[in-house]
Fold:
Amino acid sequence: MTEYAVVVIGGGPAGLAAAIKAWDSGAESVLVLERDTVLGGILNQCIHNGFGLTRFKESLTGPEYAWRFIEEVKKRGIEVWTDTTVLSIDKEKRVFAINSERGVFSIYAKSIILAMGCRERSKGALNIAGSRPSGLFSAGTAQKYVNVKGWLPGREVVILGSGDIGLIMARRMTLEGAKVRAVCEIMPYSSGLKRNIVQCLDDFDIPLYLSHTIVEIEGRDRVSGVVIAKVDENRKPIKGTEKRFSCDTVLFSVGLIPENELTAQAGIKLSSQTKGAVVDQNRETEIEGVFACGNVLHVHDLVDFVSEEAEIAGKSAADYANGVRGEKDCVECVAGESVGYVLPQLIDRKGGENVKLYFRVRKPIRDGEIRLESGGVTIFSKRKKIFTPGEMESIIIKKEDLAKFDSKSVLSVIGG
Structure:
């Protein structure tokens, strides 16, 4: 059985950044396993700009952002196996995989980094009335067709969901000559970044219908139209509010789900809130030496933060492989008032470094206060003018404050 110090599963933005950091942190051997034929992951089909503003202080396309990391992987001579599907991992840190060159094979890793990314939620989960005509696509599939294959999915489009991919595809389809008739969002607020609402909808006069959903898809062989309706506070359609749009294409942008089949199969505990692994600030799961980062851990809005988090996992994996490991003293960190999730879910009081906590709010909040409390003691508090569910927030807990944590801490955002 072949042995590596660090095996990274996934060659997208998280896996690449983690592999580079693991190598730079002293890992004697690093292997990246990627199921696609090329590295880069989802970035390869994201040809719009706006990537790298935080990390590189310049606006890059997705392929340009990925290329910078791919070049760094090549410079270091990090081993990469593409067209390789990982079948399973176990608690002994054995990786079982398959490719056309080696057949089914196994690798032993001193440490493993999970960086499998995420996938789109499908139309089948929505229970929309109608048959199954052609012209129904997830927004990500449509993006690949347009940007990679050069195919235009349709001429008249309605988009369900205002996630960032849906917003970006509203602009992309318009630029390719299609007419985007409407973007519908079941929530009373958009789940996308504010800049994408402005640049992708407002700038092209594309209407956004908040608190609306599709109640019927018309057409037998091909989509011919949709009926949308307003929803109440329980997200149930309100009779008498229906509107019909003629269209030949419907794109679904109804959320992303971390790809955690391998994680669950290995017996690693998953969070009911993020749908990713439960981790500490080093991004270590409950299995020693197995780390997770990027969209497989929780869905990010900016790839810059994916890279930042992956570097934490990369350094931690290299340290573990090199035997650098102290005793842990972890306390639980949970989401409190108005907070959808907080990550990491465990805080090691013996960590010895500042801890960056990421979180998302459940609903828009103005003039709110972030408050982190433990054992009746306020460890951190800060006010901010606006919070939105589409933007991930973060706070930094100083290392000298780690000793203040009790058995459980609660992060809340309290409206003003």
